[in-house]
Amino acid sequence: MFAAIDLGSNSFRLHIGEYVNGVICVVKSAREPNRLAAGLDKNNVLSEEAMARGLEALKKLRAILDAYPLSDVRAVATNTLRIASNAPVFLQNAEKVLGYPIEVISGEEEGRLIYLGVANVLARPEERRLVIDIGGGSTELICGKGQEIERVESFSVGTVRQSLAFFHDGIIDGASFEAAILSARSQFEDAVDYYRSCGWTEVYGSSGTIRAIAEILAVNRIGDGRFTLENLERLREKMIGAGHLNQLKLDGIKAERASSILGGLTILVVLLKDFGIGVLKPIEAGLRMGIMWDIYLMATEKDRREEAIREMLKRYQVDEQRAIRVANYALAIYKQMNPEADKFLKLLYWSALLHEIGIFISPTNYHKHGAYLIENADMAGFTAREQRQMSRFVLGQKGNLRKLNGIMTVPDAIKAVLALRLAVMFQHSKVNFKPEKIKVRVKNRIEMTMPKEWLNLYPTLLYWLERECDWWEEVGIALTVRTV
């Protein structure tokens, strides 16, 4: 049983589910509205009140989490916490309240997870589709076929922003609607040609706002009740006729969601009209379902991160034979040191595979270029924490160790850094490496035993070992090398 938490711009949401016979069944859902995005000022600073609302919402979600036997929990934050300048302050407190790490994901990663949830619920491998998700702070458009994404984009327009910017104090009139539609159109205009031509046969709406509008169209018998541009225009006229959010007399509109529905409607009118969408189909799947599928797939052979690593190797023209050799060396050395847990095993292996990607930019200081690329690339499936950790490993593959500061207090991280450094050293010195030929122990000091003949067979090895001893001594760790 696992849980997915979405810290959105309009509300915080939770799914708890379990994998049963090929599908993920949701056993518990919860939604805590807090309109976090409404607490952003013109400088993108979150107000104290907004942060307090967010923490209170997380307390309620934590109480639900504590009632279930969960094997894994993943919490992600989206647009508002991507752009808030004081997000780190909120996130530090939020993680304490929730009891789990919170990852701020990119718009592209958000789109990938949304599509993953939709694709696995539909299970139609040949269908070409467009998936639309409208959140409080951003809108994601994903075009793909079956399980494969062909294009994913995130646009900085969402329900909360539209509502706050164009419908002041809840007043609804034609001029405000036109201004809101024009603003939304400006966000999407460069993408229209592609999405009109990408060949989709079905269009799905995965967000709560889209499902809410679909319900309003159906229960109020607006037009034929379908999600079409014509019926959205009818709904628009009804809203303008009401004149104010408080005066809306439509079944299915909850007071706390009325402004989001209003803002979302302005975006949907643009998308259906400009993208040539005949009928949009709401679907009960999206980000949280995608997170749960991601958790499940990471625990199987279908880890999306493996594909992301292959894409990086190809993009930066890495010598794969060298990369695989170093990765195998590093893993063998690391395992020999008996790490306390397995959490760095995959990250170390992937870091070793990518250790030379920085050469694509320049052979000089390639470890620094590689570290930057890994930390800042959009690597599907990876959390920001994982990318930062891999970035630190790649940065620490050579040279002084002082630059690693924070991670040198974690025993398993020290072992991982040492394993990668030794693997790179043996590769550079052209050592015919066999893991059984060396022994490495790490406690309060590092002790390494290696064959004496290596010093004669590989002339540069002694030089690098002497430098390595000095570098470890600089951070207060003794390294001794014995030959036998």
UniProtKB/TrEMBL annotation:
GO terms for molecular function: pyrophosphatase activity. The keyword Lyase does not apply. Residues 305-467 form the Ppx/GppA phosphatase C-terminal domain. It comes from the Bacteria. Residues 19-295 form the Ppx/GppA phosphatase N-terminal domain. InterPro entries: ATPase_NBD (IPR043129), GppA/Ppx_hydrolase (IPR050273), HD/PDEase_dom (IPR003607), Ppx_GppA_C (IPR048950), Ppx_GppA_N (IPR003695), PyroPPase_GppA_Ppx (IPR030673). The keyword Hydrolase applies. Keywords: Hydrolase. This is Exopolyphosphatase. The lineage of its organism: Bacteria, Pseudomonadati, Pseudomonadota, Betaproteobacteria, Burkholderiales.
